[in-house]
Amino acid sequence: MSDVIDQDEFAFFTRNLLKWYRAHGRDLPWRRTTDPYAIWVSEIMLQQTQVATVLPYYERFLSSFPAIRDLASASPDKVLKAWEGLGYYARARHLHRAANEIMIRFGGKFPSRFEEILSLPGIGRSTAGAIATIALGQRYPILDGNVKRVLCRYFCIEEDPKKKEIEEQLWDYSEKLLPRKGADDYTQAVMDLGATLCTPAEPRCPLCPVRNQCKAREKGIQEKLPIKGAGKIIPERDYVAGVVFRKEKVLIRRRPAKGLLGGLWEFPGGRVDLDGRAGGFEKKIKGTLQKEIPWTVDQWAPWGKIKHTFTHFKMTLHVFSGRIEERKGKNTDAQKWVAVEELSNYPFSSAHQKILSKLKQPDEQPRLFS
């Protein structure tokens, strides 16, 4: 990494990027509004999620919760249901919490100061900067994944951007690249550049507006940057889920509010340690299931397996069905007996949505389960 960057390199980058954006910038719904609430929602949804995935969720979410007051007064289940399938559910919980804080602390009006925006749940420095710049016309740098990649290539930073000193240098570069006027357009432009041309694999360098000064391209190493740290081995874990019937209803439970998939509903079960030794496989699974269900379950039957990958591990979900005859068991806030046709009213994770599809369409079993 160069110790000294020529100021012309900053000016060239900003000038050519803005010119390119005015001709090729994407037409996105959150760019047709100056409403800080709508832009906030879009920025949270776009964290670790591609635009194409976000688009239908953004429209539906704002249709369900058109204003901060509507989001704050909604039940957690309704908010999670609107988020169902988008993943990283902590984002939805943080949005809900932040909306309630805005009602209490700011009288229902989205805060106008960077420090106040940054103080809200689920908002870090880059997201706060994007909202303040795009929605409020202020001037703050951003440094999301796309921007890090663009800057690492343009300035040819051959060190891990996760290192503290390298990250601080990237923040400094990001701030120096911000124009005095038009910072909102610049912020959208640099995100577009990373999302559409300066992509992680096979960057479209011939179309890039700053290619003539890109130091990584000069050295022919653009696809090797940013430098990645040592890869982590993704562990594989076994889980079990039980679809328990009592007459025409099925048992579901709510996950704890904090942690993985917090607040979502699921079919009861949990992690099971399968050491791979022959024999006792189903017995071990059924024993784990029975510990999670406070009634004696008759006639456990295997339904198959579901494969699902989370950020930090790969899951094999072993699904079993069973039935109980007891009449005990009242509905609580964390546990309910629900008719099959009403299950779609509750937010489930992607893996458990496959179980839900099986319940509604038994013929789908071969496609959904392996």
Give the topology.
Layout: H1 7-24, H2 36-45, H3 51-64, H4 68-73, H5 76-83, H6 90-105, H7 114-118, H8 125-136, H9 145-154, H10 164-177, H11 183-196, H12 215-219, E1 236-246, E2 249-254, E3 265-266, E4 269-272, H13 281-292, E5 298-309, E6 314-323, E7 335-339, H14 350-360, H15 365-368
Helix pairs in contact: 1-11, 2-3, 2-8, 8-11, 9-11
Major β-sheet profile: 7 strands, mixed
Number of domains: 2
Low-confidence residue ranges: 364-370
CATH superfamily of the largest domain: Hypothetical protein, domain 2
For the record, give the distance between the C-alpha atoms at the N and C termini, rounded to a whole number.
49 Å
Strand segment tally? 7
Structural class: alpha+beta
The H/E string reads HHHHHHHHHHHHEEEEHEEEHH
Helix content: 40-55%
Q: Helical stretch count?
A: 15
Tell me, rounded to a whole number, the average pLDDT.
Answer: 90
CATH class of the largest domain: Mainly Alpha
- From the 3D structure, determine the CATH topology of the largest domain: Endonuclease III, domain 1
Query: What is the level-2 CATH architecture name of the largest domain?
Result: Orthogonal Bundle
Radius of gyration over all CA atoms, rounded: 25 Å
Approximate strand percentage: 5-15%
Overall 3D geometry? elongated
Family: Belongs to the Nth/MutY family.
Cofactor: [4Fe-4S] cluster
Domain Nudix hydrolase: 235-361
GO biological process, one term: mismatch repair
